[in-house]
Amino acid sequence: MSDLSSVQNVQDQAKGDLEKIHNPQELEAFRIAYLGKKGKLSLLMERIKELSGEAKKDYGKAVNDLKRLIESSLSELKGKQTSGPAQTGSIPYDPTLPPLRPRQGSIHPITQTIQEISKLFVRLGFETVQGPEIETEYHNFTALNIPLDHPSRDAFDTFYVDDGRLLRSQTSTVQIRIMQSRKPPLSIIAPGRVYRPDAVDASHSFMFHQIEGLMVDQETTFGDLKGILKLFLRELFGSKTAVRFRPHYFPFTEPSVEVDIRWGKGWLEILGAGCVHPNVFKAVGYSTQKIKGFAFGLGVERMAMIRHGIPDIRLFYENDLRFLRQFS
Questions:
Q1: Are residues 140 and 25 in the same domain?
Q2: Does residue 93 form part of some domain?
């Protein structure tokens, strides 16, 4: 058999085999048999190195023409199988179906809680403000009437950095900066991250979120504080939520209270509050005779854990999608 006859013979075989293909599996088997590394076209190509002159040229052209013919036939047949009705053993495909949509992201539960609380206070006339997370001792302690020997100033309770600065341990620092830059009346809330060197466990973290609230005016009373906090807590936890105020001590407020809500079979501490201490007003240059005000502070993680029944604060920061997708 001549060299060109062997090429024609393979072409005739390919034509017959193409007519027998009915599904993608048979199509792939044909491709391997003819175009694979050990396929019939590869065997024909090996013959080229044994030829020379015009014979080599004619033979090479014939083999290449056959290769292009087989490739085009495969492409055409594959297109017919894809666009036509589903064949036996193939995967059904309906081009009229809408595409699969990628899963949408959602807002983190901590951010959701901050936004919800902020919206409630905005409805009550409060403005949302921000402040730096790296603070001075003056703004974090001194201006808030926290004495030099107070335990919270110790390096075991505060993250100190260079130049006498520190990572703020409370968002109360923002109220100092706002009062220094503005005159009364003021109604603000300051959400943000705070830092304390606590051992991490189910209820503690070295970084968490607080919301500080402040109202300052000439006629602000402790009764206003109670009314606003009751309204806020009942909006957040339900209109029938029982609220109680217990006497407490904070250096920056006087009188001071801790606020509890009735939760389950007992009372649950939810936030701290009180009337702004006169020494705080002195530190920012306000008149202690004319100006009155109140402040309150709450932990965002604690609020979210109570509302959603979350047992461990660490779940908020482990980036487990199974947990986070519950809040989408």
A1: no
A2: no
